[in-house]
Amino acid sequence: MNAIVEWFTDPANWTGPDGVPTRLGEHLFYTLLALSIAALIAIPIGLWIGHTGRGGFAVVSLANSLRALPTFGVLVLLANSFGIGLAPPIVALVVLAIPPVLAGTYAGVQAVDRAIVDAARGMGMGEREILTRVELPNGLPLIIGGLRSATLQIIATATIAAYVALGGLGRYIIDGLSVRDFAEMAAGSILLALLAIVTDLVLAGLQRALVSPGLRPAQASRPRPRRLRAVA
Known about the structure:
It is built from ten helices and no strands. With 232 residues, the chain is an all-alpha fold.
């Protein structure tokens, strides 16, 4: 523990190209890039199969089968095939992120009450209007939930980028392991856990801000004051 405290209090670990701010920025860049690509692929597909109901089971099952692929194995395969660079870890992280985003989007649209959709059609709305003005807003809680899950998985797994000579918080773990500096490895793990916790809290706040109050989970009913119970 003393060695870990000394690592965090050493000014050299907080400045320069190997400092915590630089490594944190690299880790966030990998995370945002992989999440953006996965969202651009999975969200439109999830909205389409959720709205039309065509091929939903097959597409979601195929996406969920990607969970069985070992991310590290995919990284090594791509690195051996195309060389070391940014593409192999990003592709591996995108493959990891697509299933939760796709499943969350599909489930969010499918969970919308069909009576609401039928009412929208009865009002003369077209299919695109129903998707964008009815199904998408009502399915937003599950869609954001899928994005939150994917984000946390990417943050935890983006450490593999250090294995192919890239940056990120995984550098502390890989470099510490190579020289048996266990304090550096522990510090990298702590920073990674803190980043995941803070990111999840930020996304939870964003979800609360974006989702309509009427779509939030109902709070547990509180007991009414004795006087109100008596009046009732």
